[in-house]
Amino acid sequence: MKLDLRWFVMEALEAYIQEYEIKGALDFYEQQLINKKGKILEIGQNHLFLLPNLLNHGLQMEGLVDSKKGEEACKQKCEELNQTTTIYQLSLNEFKKPTRYDAIIIPFGSVLTAEERHNSIKLLKNVYDHLKSKGTIIVDLFIQDEFLVQQKHSMVQEFMSHLYVCEKQLIKLDMIEQSTTYLLSVERIKEGK
To answer: What would the pLDDT profile of 40-52 be if each residue is shown by its tens digit?
Structure first.
């Protein structure tokens, strides 16, 4: 089992994600955005992991996140890097801004976290409305690769003197609505507790 969206949304693995997953994503996004001279918007579900580092690479970044905690964490990271930018804390599929962007990125499958398919479509239409003519949208997607309901998968990972024991189980799969429901559990063990 690999680390994917189902684990990404769980805060217990945030440190693991920041350490390992972001490095590859940064390289990819920097290559895709390096020639963009105008503003770029990163949209995130609970966090804006790429924005501070892309600012450090000279890109004109802004962010949109739906949680106050995510907004504050991103601002703090920007301050640590001596960077400033605009970060909006708004509902992802309801935001309306007069700004038009040269590129909008939705990394780490954030578009897939909408509970219903029509909400994902609404978000993508809203994103399109905020693009400049000939602007670029980059959306990370995960292709459903599990089809056996009730089957369990486990992962054991040691990281920073913690042992993580993760388990996921596909509970419901709706191919028409393109939605899945998982039961997830994460145990973080340090010094036997």
So the answer is: 999 987 788 889 8
Distance, CA of 138 to CA of 64 (rounded, Å) = 15
Cβ–Cβ under 8 Å, residues 132 and 102? yes
* Cβ–Cβ < 8 Å for 144, 161: no
Tell me the per-residue pLDDT of 60-95, one tens digit each, with 9 for 90 and over. 999 999 889 889 988 998 899 899 899 999 887 788
Full-model pTM: 0.74
Q: Following DSSP, what letter does each residue of the chain receive, concatenated?
A: ----HHHHTSGGGHHHIIIIIHHHHHHHHHHHHTT--SEEEEEESS---SHHHHHHTT-EEEEEES-HHHHHHHHHHHHHTT----EEE--TTT---S--EEEEEE-TTGGGGSSSHHHHHHHHHHHHHTEEEEEEEEE---------TT-EEEEEEEETTEEEEEEEEEEEEETTTTEEEEEEEEEEESTT-
Structure tokens at 178: 């393109």
Contact predicate 105/33, CB 8 Å: yes
How many other β-carbons are positioned within 10 Å of the β-carbon of residue 132?
14
Distance CA 33, CA 74 (A): 20
Residue with tokens 């990271």: 77
